[in-house]
């Protein structure tokens, strides 16, 4: 058993409202009009909200589960309504196979006030959603006064009361003109309220579209199917079960996770290949150095480092016999270090001596930051610098980097 009540807004204790009582099959058992205190007692109450208070918008969305349909509709119409979307109540009807869906928009404050004032309220339906849809537009009169047009896609246009003079309302004339310019004008407008033949002729001439008679619309004569298909302004998305949400999350991240795993595997494989190649190259270079030292008859060259040092000494000896400087000799080594050593404050250098392939420089008080910068620069120039504090300041020992020999 359901009590269906027509309201223009939140009910008042002294405001009578039209109602009807229907059984579970939608058959009308009783009609009446009374204040809320005298409404029949039923397990559930459905409220039909007057057409001027609700706007219906036709949308076309990709196939969506019911739990996400309302949020998608709210996002789609956000820029089509004057009020902020957070202050509006948005509801949707069922989505059709072609993706079309009907969205109802009303004041959030009005919907909240009705929900709080009507006990046992189960649904809140727009009056305009109960109006029939035809092959054109359907012009209906609301039980609250005024009128509205239901387009063939289900959307609505709220207009004023049909003029007593019989003239076509300006809102409807403007909507027809705009539809004609867009190439979307209806073939006919069905007039679903009492009228005369002369009125149909006047409206047809004024609107440039044929106006035809239709069965008058009344909200309390809407069938069960129209009520079932109407958007419910009290409906909210149902939370998906935890398992379904987890499954949806896993499905959403399945491809990114697979790509990340593949990238990680490729990175690890690349590191293994690079490490293997570098190890092989180091082994091959070491063997070459030891072989070269052996071919040159250099003693004490059993390892790669010993072979490199022996080859460097042998190379320096050959250069000396040819009256040429070796890279680790005093002047070539000082030439590498001089541009950077010269950046130390004038007078800071106290002494400089060369012996056994190394320069030993002693400085007076020198800022640690300056010494650190010089050390980095020397390393980049192929000079190893060993810095140590002494009583008189700082001592720096410069040798040629083995790679530069």
Keywords:
single chain; 405 residues; alpha+beta; Nucleotidyltransferase, domain 5; 4 domains; rod-shaped
Explain this structure.
The chain has 405 residues and is an alpha+beta fold. The chain has four domains: 1-131 and 222-239, Nucleotidyltransferase, domain 5 (2-Layer Sandwich); 132-216; 242-319; 325-404, Gyrase A, domain 2 (2-Layer Sandwich). It contains nine helices and 17 strands. It has helices at 66-77, 108-117, 170-181, 197-207, 224-229, 242-295, 304-321, 330-341, 368-380; strands at residues 2-7, 17-22, 28-34, 44-49, 54-60, 88-92, 100-107, 121-126, 137-141, 147-150, 156-159, 188-192, 210-213, 349-355, 358-363, 383-390, 393-400. The protein has a five-stranded mixed beta sheet, with no helix packed on it. β6 (88-92) and β7 form a beta hairpin. α6 crosses α7. The longest helix has 54 residues, at 242-295. The N and C termini lie far apart (102 Å). The model is unreliable at 238-245 (pLDDT under 50).
Shape designation: rod-shaped
Poorly predicted parts? 238-245
Architecture of the largest domain, CATH level 2? 2-Layer Sandwich
Strand order, sheet with most strands? 3-2-1-4-8
- Helix and strand succession? EEEEEHEEHEEEEHEHEHHHHEEHEE
- Count of individual helical segments: 9
- Termini gap: 102 Å
Query: In CATH, what is the class of the largest domain?
Result: Alpha Beta
Report the structural category.
Answer: alpha+beta
The biggest sheet amounts to: 5 strands, mixed
- Amount of beta strand: 25-35%
Radius of gyration: 46 Å
């Amino acid at each position: 058993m359901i009590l269906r009540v027509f309201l223009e807004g939140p009910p008042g204790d002294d405001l009578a409202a039209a109602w009807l009582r229907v059984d579970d099959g939608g058959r009308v058992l009783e009609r009446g009009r009374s204040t809320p205190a005298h409404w029949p007692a039923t397990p559930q109450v459905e409220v039909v909200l007057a057409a001027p208070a609700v706007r219906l918008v036709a949308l076309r969305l990709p196939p969506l589960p019911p739990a996400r349909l309302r949020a998608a509709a709210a996002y789609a119409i956000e820029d089509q309504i004057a009020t902020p979307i957070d202050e509006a109540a948005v509801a949707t009807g069922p989505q059709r196979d072609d993706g079309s869906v009907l969205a109802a928009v009303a004041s959030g404050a009005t919907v909240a006030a009705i929900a709080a004032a009507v006990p046992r309220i189960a649904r809140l339906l727009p009056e305009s959603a109960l109006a029939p849809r035809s092959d054109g537009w359907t012009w209906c009169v609301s039980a609250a006064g005024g009128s509205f047009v239901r387009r063939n896609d289900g959307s609505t246009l709220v207009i004023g009361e049909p003029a007593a003079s019989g003239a076509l309302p300006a809102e409807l004339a403007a909507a027809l003109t705009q539809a004609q310019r867009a190439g979307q004008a209806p073939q006919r407008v069905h007039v679903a309220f009492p009228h005369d033949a002369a009125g149909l002729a006047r409206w047809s001439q004024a609107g440039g579209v044929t106006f035809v008679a239709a069965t008058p619309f009344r909200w309390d004569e809407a069938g069960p199917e129209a009520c079932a298909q109407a958007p419910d302004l009290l409906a909210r998305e149902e939370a998906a079960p935890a398992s379904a949400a987890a499954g949806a999350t896993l499905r959403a991240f399945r491809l990114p996770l697979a790509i990340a795993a593949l990238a990680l595997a490729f990175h690890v494989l690349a590191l293994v290949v690079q490490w293997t190649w570098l190890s092989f190259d180091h082994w091959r270079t070491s063997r070459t150095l030891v072989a070269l030292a052996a071919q040159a008859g250099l003693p004490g060259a059993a390892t790669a480092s010993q072979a490199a040092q022996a080859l460097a000494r042998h190379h320096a000896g050959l250069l000396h016999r040819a009256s040429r400087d070796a890279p680790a000799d005093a002047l070539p080594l000082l030439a590498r270090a001089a541009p950077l050593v010269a950046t130390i404050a004038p007078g800071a250098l106290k002494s400089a001596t060369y012996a056994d392939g190394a320069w030993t420089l002693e400085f007076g008080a020198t800022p640690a930051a300056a010494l650190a910068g010089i050390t980095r620069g020397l390393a980049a120039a192929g000079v190893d610098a060993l810095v140590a504090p002494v009583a008189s300041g700082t001592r720096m020992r410069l040798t040629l980097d083995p790679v530069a020999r």
